[in-house]
Design goal:
By secondary structure, this protein is an alpha/beta fold. It contains eight helices and ten strands. The strands form four sheets. A three-stranded mixed sheet has the order 3-5-4. It has a three-stranded mixed sheet with strand order 6-10-9, with helices on one face. It has a two-stranded antiparallel sheet with strand order 1-2. The longest helix has 17 residues.
Length: 294
């Protein structure tokens, strides 16, 4: 008899009800032990409630985006003509939690970094009809203020801004001064800086970003702290796990060769090419230090 397993089983049963729209249904295990036989009877006590249908979803305090646009962000949907067919308009706990995170991420990636869901209210207009109200605070929309680079002695700030070109595509910093600041944009720009150094052999470089918010001006100053490290070269390329495909078939897809500077971007490109062949379940790359420094 494992009480933890019984609890998990009851939770799975509740989830089954919730997926079908019976939001308030509860399932609890009750144990009746028999000390003489060393056995117990387990009874799952189910309290069923009416199916909960979402009549409407409202965003109180939202002014920058329309109610319709915000509702599209959520996977949780309100009742409509074909809800019976699509299975929407049901309130599901796990999905609803994910939706709240999606709503926050949507606003942050539109520049509203301080966006907050103050409260979520469930207004049951009938026992099985509910209006969900998100009480939100949007905050200010941040734009990029000053951008500063520290630790870049090998390359100038202008060179880093110009980025690199790979197969006709330029990878460079996109979130420049005056652009809307977003966490997603910051991550992409950090990757662009890593690719700039990585394409030149500095595969061990590290870049940290420091954000300094100015609520008065509505700007976000950015400081990129760079640790350049040393340049690396490719000593040799090993291919493993190809039991059916010949080495030469794989090697002709590679964009790098032994003896060259370790171009991290071209290594990624080689991986993408091999994945594009659709010969393999998975393609991984590993870098190992050799007896020769760098």
């Amino acid at each position: 008899l494992d009480e933890q397993k019984l609890f998990l089983d009851s939770q799975e049963m509740q989830k089954m009800y919730q997926k079908s729209g019976y939001q308030k249904t509860t399932v609890k295990p009750a144990i009746a032990p028999d000390e003489n036989t060393g056995r117990a009877t387990v009874t799952f006590e189910v309290i069923e409630t009416p199916k909960v249908i979402i009549k409407d979803i409202e965003f109180v305090g939202a002014t920058e985006f329309s109610q319709k646009k915000l509702r599209k962000v959520l996977k949780t949907k309100r009742r409509w003509l074909f809800s019976w067919l699509t299975g929407s308009a049901k309130l599901k706990d796990e999905q609803f939690e994910d939706d709240q995170e999606k709503l926050i991420a949507f606003h942050q990636n539109e520049g509203y970094i301080d966006f907050e869901i103050k409260d979520v209210q469930f207004d049951y207009v009938t026992p099985n009809r509910v209006i969900i109200r998100f009480m939100v605070s949007e905050g200010a929309r941040y734009k990029v203020g000053n951008i500063t680079f520290k630790g870049n002695s090998l390359f100038s700030t202008d060179e880093i801004y110009q980025g690199i070109k790979v197969e006709g595509r330029t990878r460079k910093i996109e979130m420049t001064v005056g652009k809307i600041f977003t966490p997603q944009g910051l991550q992409k720009d950090r990757e662009a800086i890593q690719d700039f150094y990585g394409a030149k052999g500095y595969i061990d470089m590290r870049v940290a970003s420091i954000k300094v918010a100015n609520t008065t001006t509505g700007t976000m100053d950015l400081v990129y702290e760079i640790d350049e490290k040393n340049k690396s070269f490719i000593e040799k390329i090993e291919i493993k796990g190809n039991d059916k495909t010949k080495d030469k078939v794989i090697r002709r897809e590679l964009a790098v060769s032994p003896g060259e500077v370790y171009d991290m971007v071209r290594v990624k490109l080689s991986k993408e090419r091999l994945e594009g062949l659709r010969y393999f379940e998975k393609v991984d790359t590993q870098s190992e230090e050799t007896d020769v420094p760098n």
